[in-house]
């Protein structure tokens, strides 16, 4: 939780080294990609220290001058941004709600997807863990809990949370994105519309972890033809429970 607060306050120099040096930022976060490219020589030293002491902080004695200067640029970029948007893959909604008292302007967008689509995607990229537990039960249990918290917040403070379905974005990206931008009090500009077209109706699909697709609607429904009937039956039993929260019939 403290790491998230540092991101939201642009205190990047207080982040733990594992967070700061994660290669994910190099490919998917513009601000930190700039940092990675600028401080490439020192990053190996940071990662070596990470292995020795995972809780070590970035300070003048732990990294070189080049890295500290590069980090200042990232901090400045963060501080001068009119809006900060942070995407979390597995952050639980109850944890996100716990941040609201600390940040009066913070808004939560809860993105949900049909569990069958999630499980099929996890299997495709090798992230579906079936050794220690039942991934179907665990995923749907987490979704149910998250939806419970979200729907409660929608009643008590509706201006601070938005429940968004992945399938809606895939089927009608312009209308859904406009609704999202209105919620965030952001300008749904022509450049945004151009970006949406590029992402949802591209000439080619990008990597498995990327978002650029030739046909977003077809991508969202791809699980229907890729999972086996036995899997589909099992997934559906749990999916029905989850989507009951949204008033959707399967």
SSE layout and pairing:
Layout: H1 2-8, H2 17-20, H3 24-28, H4 30-38, H5 40-52, H6 65-79, H7 93-99, E1 108-112, H8 115-124, H9 135-156, E2 161-165, H10 166-171, H11 173-183, H12 190-200, H13 216-220, H14 223-226, H15 229-244
Parallel strand pairs: 1-2
Helix pairs in contact: 4-6, 9-15
Q: In CATH, what is the class of the largest domain?
A: Alpha Beta
The proportion of residues in beta strands is: under 5%
Main-sheet strand order equals 1-2
* Poorly predicted tracts of residues: none
Number of strands: 2
Largest sheet: 2 strands, parallel
Count of discrete domains = 2
The whole-number mean of residue pLDDT values reads 76
The CATH architecture assignment of the largest domain turns out to be 3-Layer(aba) Sandwich
Number of helices: 15
Structural class designation = mainly alpha
What is the general shape? globular
Order of helices and strands: HHHHHHHEHHEHHHHHH
Q: What percent of the residues sit in helical stretches (DSSP H or I)?
A: 55-70%
CATH topology of the largest domain: Rossmann fold
Radius of gyration: 20 Å
Distance between the termini: 36 Å
Q: What is the CATH H-level superfamily of the largest domain? A: P-loop containing nucleotide triphosphate hydrolases
């Amino acid at each position: 939780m403290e790491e998230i607060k540092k991101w939201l306050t642009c205190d990047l120099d207080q982040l733990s080294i594992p967070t700061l040096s994660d290669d994910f930022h190099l490919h998917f976060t513009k601000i930190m990609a700039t940092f990675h490219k600028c401080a490439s020589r020192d990053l190996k030293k940071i990662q070596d220290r990470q292995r020795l002491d995972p809780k070590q902080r970035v300070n003048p004695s732990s990294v070189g001058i080049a890295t500290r200067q590069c980090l200042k640029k990232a901090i400045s970029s963060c501080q001068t941004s009119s809006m900060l948007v942070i995407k979390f893959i597995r952050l639980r909604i109850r944890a996100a709600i716990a941040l609201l008292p600390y940040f009066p302007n913070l808004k939560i967008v809860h993105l949900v997807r049909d569990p069958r689509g999630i499980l099929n995607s996890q299997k495709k990229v090798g992230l579906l863990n079936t050794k220690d537990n039942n991934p179907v039960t665990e995923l749907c249990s987490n979704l149910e809990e998250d939806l419970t918290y979200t729907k409660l917040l929608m009643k008590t403070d509706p201006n601070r949370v938005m429940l968004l379905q992945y399938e809606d974005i895939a089927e009608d990206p312009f209308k859904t994105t406009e609704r999202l931008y209105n919620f965030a009090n952001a300008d749904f500009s022509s450049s945004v519309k151009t970006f949406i077209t590029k992402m949802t109706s591209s000439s080619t699909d990008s990597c498995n972890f990327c978002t650029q697709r030739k046909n977003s609607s077809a991508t969202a429904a791809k699980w229907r033809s890729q999972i086996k009937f036995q899997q589909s039956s099992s997934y559906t039993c749990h999916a029905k429970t989850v989507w009951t929260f949204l008033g959707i019939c399967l």
